[in-house]
Each structure stands twice: as C-alpha cells, then as structure tokens.
Design a protein that fits this description.
The protein has twelve helices and 14 strands. With 354 residues, the chain is of the alpha/beta class. It has two domains: 59 residues, Orthogonal Bundle (DNA polymerase, domain 1), CATH 1.10.150.530; 288 residues, Alpha-Beta Barrel (TIM Barrel), CATH 3.20.20.70. A ten-stranded mixed beta sheet has the order 3-4-5-6-9-10-11-12-13-14, with helices on both faces.
C-alpha cells in the first residue's frame, strides 16, 4: 500500500494521472494532508466518494503507530515512540519554549550505524533508513497536536535517531516537504540538520542552495580523543570536518554550529576548551555546549556548572561564541534512543515471564 506521505506533489500528480483523474485532485489531496492534516479519507469532503474509497483501498495516511508517550514533569517536553509496519521503533520529541518556539526533534533512521559511545541509539546499532514520508510524518503528528491547542510547530531539528546525511536522499526530500508552502511550511532557517561529520555529504549538502542550519557533533578537539567517542572520526578526522564546515559557510553564508557534549573530567577542562578555541578561531561558527545526557551503556557523567562556566569563558577568549543548552526531558529519558531501549527491555522482560 502506498504511503501518501512518501509522495511529492509530482508523485501525487502522476498517481492521479494513472488513475485518469484530473490534476487538481492531487492538489486537493495535498491540502488535506498538510494544510488540514486530516487522519481519515472520509474527512476529504471535496473529493468524490468513489475516489475516497479508492484512496482508502490502495493508499494509506501514514504508517506511524504510537507505542509510548511520556511527558516531562520538569519541562514542557513530550517524547513519543512510534512502531513502524516492520516492527522497528523510532522516537520523536516535542519541546515547547517560553519564547514561543515549538520544536520537533525527529528521527531519520531506525537505529544508527555511527556507533557514538555515549548515545543510546548508537549503542543499539543500525536497522534501516526511514523513508521521507516516515520522517515528515513525525513532524506532522506534533503539528497536528499543537494546532488542536491553538498553537503551531515553528522549528524542526533532525537530531533524533540516526545520522541524517547517511540517509541523504530521503532526508533531503523530507526537508523540502517540511519547507514547502504546500507542505508543512516550516522556514528553512527554522530547520536544523545534525551530523557526526560525514565530510563528502557535508560538502554535497553545501551545494543544495538551502538555508537550513548545520550542526556538527564534535565533542573533542584532537583526533585520538574524538575517535574514542565517535568512531567515524577514523574515517573523517577533525581537520577534514573543519574544512568541510568552512566550505559550508563559504557556500551558504550561514554560521555552523558545533555540538559539544560536556563529559565530566574528560572533555570539560580548560585545556580542552583552549584546544577547541584554537581549532575554531576565525570560523563563522557557534558552539552548543551540552551537559551529557547519561545512558545505561556509558559511564560518563555531565559536567558541573563551574566547569561549564570555565569552559565557556575560555572559548570566549578565542572569540568563539557559545551557549549552554538547557537539559530537557531528563526525567523522561528524552535523549536519543533511551525510550526505545526502555520499551524493548520491558517487552523482553514480559516475554521471558510469559
């Protein structure tokens, strides 16, 4: 069965052409999908009954089945776990900020092949790429929820499960659908893609002529230390990553963000900050400092506030701007892969009991 969210406008037109239906029907269906965000074919009231019945028989309105949901008691954060038709599980997070931003953090893969040691998703390994429709549908669910409350989804971050640039084609199609005025109409500057540093794909992404934000997970300023945290560094070392980031800045005029998970006693020292400052000095960039979100598979702990302040002050001396990300959803395991890990653990326990 065809998932309608996997179809671009041209794909929808082609489908209706094969069905010998007028082209304007494709536009009507697209409006029902993304403007009205309907959940049933019966709701598409300006379509003939016969067409609604055919759509119901031969296509489907999405594939995500909600398997779990958690709400943070500490912050306005909602985490959802979705089950896919092949039984894979993926996660999405909605974060609501006091300044009015409503940000969906969505996944691009089921699992991840990058193997970053402190990431719960990296610890579980790679299952498969998500389709562009499966990526978009995550944002659509939160957009529908917010609209029911008189609010709207304002930002998208491709920072959920998976490496977006490893799933390059589907991720790009999803971004274009998210940005499309006939899709979810999220401005490009309100979309951010996060990568561990796939150098050829960063350079390719720079050529797409998009104004989408780029965030690169760095986490260490020397190759030996970064390779211990992010195995991909053995293939694409730090110097190549920085050069690719500079190329992205050159081609797009946009500032690059570097993500730095602060791990107590490991990469949160003044010495590390000095190495990072020297590495980034003169580059149009910003450092996002993130006190580590602990996972069961990694023993590291988040930095204490005094070490964070000293790290940030050191970067400032090198002319490198930075902010400390507010930790959100710790009480609901909002870090990538954590809810999935917990649900799978419960399912295995239930099966063993039965």
């Amino acid at each position: 069965m065809t998932n309608l969210y996997d179809l671009s406008d041209d794909d929808l037109k082609a489908l209706f052409a094969r069905w010998e239906m007028p082209a304007f029907r494709a536009k009507q269906v697209s409006e029902w999908l993304y403007k009205h965000k309907v959940t049933t074919f019966e709701a598409m009231t300006n379509l003939p009954k016969a067409l609604r019945e055919r759509l119901a028989a031969e296509t489907r309105l999405g594939v995500l089945a909600q398997a779990a949901e958690q709400h943070s008691a500490e912050s306005a954060t909602t985490k959802r776990l979705y089950r896919l038709p092949d039984n894979q599980l993926i996660e999405s997070v909605l974060m609501e900020y006091e300044d009015g931003r409503r940000t969906a953090c969505i996944s691009t893969q089921a699992g991840c092949a990058m193997g970053c040691v402190f990431c719960a998703t990296g610890q579980m390994g790679f299952a498969r790429h998500l389709t562009d429709g499966e990526i978009v549908e995550q944002a659509l669910h939160f957009a529908r929820l917010l609209e029911s409350e008189g609010d709207r989804l304002s930002n998208i971050v491709l920072m959920g499960m998976g490496e977006p640039l490893h799933n390059y084609e589907n991720t790009l199609r999803a971004i274009r659908r998210l940005n499309d005025p006939n899709g979810l109409n999220i401005g490009q500057r309100h979309i951010t893609l996060s990568t561990v540093g796939l150098v050829p794909e960063i350079r390719r992404f720079a050529e797409e002529a998009l104004q989408v934000g780029l965030a690169i997970s760095l986490h260490a300023a020397t190759d030996s230390e970064r390779s211990a945290l992010l195995p991909i560094n053995r293939r694409y070392p730090i110097r190549a990553v920085i050069e690719a980031a500079a190329y992205y800045v050159q081609r797009t005029g946009r500032r690059v963000t570097f993500e730095w998970a602060l791990i107590r006693g490991e990469n949160d020292t003044v010495e590390q900050a000095e190495k990072l400052g020297a590495l980034l000095q003169g580059l149009l960039c910003h450092v996002n400092l993130i006190p580590l979100n602990p996972t069961n598979g990694y023993n590291g702990a988040p930095s204490d506030p005094l070490r964070v302040d000293a790290f940030q002050a050191t970067l400032s001396r090198y002319g490198v701007s930075s902010t400390v990300r507010v930790r959100r959803g710790i009480d609901i395991q909002a870090g990538c892969g954590q809810l999935k890990t917990e649900v799978l653990r419960r399912e295995r326990r239930r099966l063993s009991i039965n």
